[in-house]
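Example record

The entry below shows one chain as it appears in the dataset: sequence first, then structure tokens.
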Amino acid sequence: MRKPELAAAIADKADLSKDQANRALNAILDEITQALSRKDTVTLVGFGTFLQRHRGARTGKNPQTGEPVKIKASNTVAFKPGKGLKDSVN
């Protein structure tokens, strides 16, 4: 499912226009993005938690030449699924 399909499903279930559902979805995604940039976690009970994780510098390998490559430290986003989401998948 892509973003337009998700917005259409939200519009159908929440009795909104597709434009309103799309704006609501964009607002949710913007708030999650801003919270993660502030190093806050976002917990949606029953669904899961979005959090920022730090990845330290490490040495990798160039797959074409096999020579070692230094990989800089970076931040990434992690998602831990909640019990409700885990149960619905299994």
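Notes for this example: The two ends are 19 Å apart (CA to CA). The first strand starts at residue 42 and ends at 44.
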